[in-house]
Design a protein that fits this description.
The protein is an alpha/beta fold. The protein has 11 helices and 10 strands. Helix 3 links the parallel strand 5 and strand 6.
Length: about 325
């Protein structure tokens, strides 16, 4: 494969990214990769957590004859701009600019453009295809259609449950912190109340600054309406050990969308796209990140994209494992 550092202008931000192409002659299908939530770089890494998701996928796709573009979020990695003051709408526009850049890149086949989203990137992907109906397909990894506030409450409750089960010094530490600052559900509710009570882009909460504009915008999203308006073919992949997005949402989305869709529920896979033989947990992210990505996700994505490109993008509506 061949990797090239690129820069894409989006409003007041210069986004730094990597264009990855197969080491061969010709024009190739191409995929734009759109991140999940948080201050993530082009590989979905952030300070203190190296997931290395998009670079692993890009390398594997190149081996299957598929080009890709991944980029640092505004204000993250080598990209300029302000991450904290950016709203969800900024992230959509940034992704749109990157999609247009990819479409005009050599040796990309403009008629075979795909968008791959992970977590929050899954709700951005169908918005891009509404702006650019020529997008050939969407690959959604751990998507959601559930109300976001409901999801956040479930995640906070899960963390409280996990902390209660931790023994020894680690458990004592977490429970002491909760007694000082409040349990996750209480703290989360206070944050949401503060965010909704202001028009500021950024708010200070406890000892940190929080992206208030982003939180208000993503909480206001109507995921059901976004998917209902979608006509673009979709591959929907989830793991049955995902505690951040309900894995059953892939089937709800498939029933909601107007376009053809294929679903895959991966046994033992978490939100981090790793297979975990241990009980499902949110707080085990550090341990999970040391494991390789689930190969079935990469292989299924590559084969689906190549089939979509070769079939002129006419994909049958199907159901697969796990329904």
């Amino acid at each position: 494969m061949v990797e090239q550092e690129v820069t894409i202008q989006s409003g007041d931000a210069s986004l730094s990214g990597t264009l990855c192409t197969p080491d061969a002659m010709g024009r190739f299908p191409a995929v734009l990769m759109v991140h999940g939530s948080g201050p993530l770089d082009r590989n979905e890494n952030t300070k203190g957590q190296a997931l290395n998701i998009f670079n692993a996928i890009a390398c594997a796709l190149a081996e299957h004859g598929i080009a890709s573009l991944r980029y640092d979020k505004r204000g993250c990695g080598k990209s300029s701009g302000n991450y904290l003051s950016a709203g969800h709408s900024h992230l959509v526009q940034d992704a749109l600019q990157c999609l247009d850049f990819l479409a005009g890149s050599d040796p990309v086949c403009e008629e075979q453009l795909f968008v791959l989203g992970h977590s929050e990137g899954c709700i951005i992907a169908p918005q891009l295809s509404q702006y650019r109906p020529a997008v050939a397909g969407l690959v959604l990894l751990c998507p959601f259609i559930e109300n976001l506030e409901s999801m956040l409450k479930k995640q906070a409750a899960q963390i409280e449950e996990e902390v209660e089960s931790i023994r020894g010094i680690a458990g004592f530490y977490y429970r002491t912190v909760f007694r000082i600052i409040g349990k996750p559900r209480e703290t989360q509710q206070r944050l949401l109340q503060k965010v909704r009570a202001t028009d500021d882009d950024v708010v200070r909460f406890a000892l940190s600054r929080q992206p208030a504009k982003w939180m208000r915008e993503i909480l206001a999203l109507d995921a059901d309406a976004i998917y209902s308006a979608n006509r673009t073919p979709m591959l929907l992949i989830a793991g049955n050990k995902d505690l951040q997005c309900d894995p059953q949402d892939i089937f709800r989305i498939a029933e909601t969308t107007q376009g053809p869709s294929e679903t895959l529920l991966v046994e033992g896979m978490t939100h981090l796209l790793r297979i975990d033989k241990n009980p499902a947990t949110i707080m085990g992210a550090a341990r999970q990140s040391r494991e390789p990505l689930a190969n079935v996700v990469i292989e299924k994505t590559a084969h689906w994209i190549n089939a979509a490109s070769g079939a002129g993008h006419q994909l049958p509506a199907t159901r697969s494992e796990g329904e």
